[in-house]
Predict the structure of Acyltransferase family protein.
Amino acid sequence: MTASEIDRSERLHGLDGLRGAALMLGVVLHAAMSFFPTQIWIVGDDQRSAWASGLFFVIHVFRMTTFFLIAGLFAHMMLARRGTWGFVKNRTVRIAAPLAVFWGVVLMAIVAVLIWNASLQGMTAAEAPPPPTYDWTNIPLTHLWFLWVLLILYAALVILRAPFAALDRDGAWGRSVDRLTAGLIGPWGPFVLGAPLAVALWLQPDWIAFFGVPTPDAGLVPNTPALVGFGLAFGFGALLDRRRDLLGRIQAWGPAYLGLAAGAGATALMLAGGPDPHLAPMTDPATKAMTAAAFGVAIYASAFAAVGLALRFWSGRSAVRRYLADASYWIYIVHLPLVMAAQVLVQDWSAPWWAKLALVVAGVSGLSLASYELLIRHTVMGRWLNGRRVPWRRPAPAALVPAE
């Protein structure tokens, strides 16, 4: 895809597919956590491997930063097309409402799996730890935290739009911003964008380096590295929508981004302790600084590499990719308690870890897709979550009647 082929009215099939893939990789990511060499997950399998934690690391480095970069581009596109109130209405219906409706249901399902697993392990109610005390700084957002962070970033985009428009009345400010955006496209871009994130990671107390950007799932105020890392990606995505021609340049630099991501990612992994790390906060300031710098570069380089590869290989229309992209939102919402339940079912089996991982991923993905097809895609829920309801059977095209 060249810059001349990028039409603002054309659906960005590659980025749409990549956004769906980033959400669906959450199934693999969470499924791998029960097979870590050191137990960190609620469900600990009998079979453990450093390959499982290595797989988690690779996915975790690029997945959510890539998602937020694409989300920023699509958000700016929608804001330009629908206007402020149309954008706010759409995001309220499609993002805020699902968070409000499904958060409690998902949390109760997770708790039910925890109780079930505890009973299988022979734990009695008296042995259970006391429930935590919750307030606005300690709310279990679960894996749906990304919806809450999206709402924060959407609000920031709407609020900042007015002063930007005031500064850009003659277009000079916008042209300067567009030139700055273009200047960040190249192998040097991840170093520039990664620098603020590296500082935020270095300053983060009790940072466990293996997990990169700490997941902002435990309160209404996201941690600073998450706000910096995901916020910068979202903002840069919004700026890319102003310069859609730069997507072709990202695609051209794709191999360089991929090589940079591999080198910086391997460095970050080794500094963090390797694929079988000691999962404890870093204490040495110098080592922490080098590790944070490596993560900053790796996270943005891998996100740009993923975008470049998607533009190169997924830019054409594909009914399968479109279907999976539509289904990915529902799959991500419901997958975590299903993954945990599947992990409980297989945890004592004697099969190799990779076979159990494949079984968990396939089973959860199959069940989630079936529920999407039967309950969501062709119902009013499909219009709610995907913006459109697909009829069960498309009407046959009307026969052509020859003119008399």
Notes: The chain has one domain: 3-386.
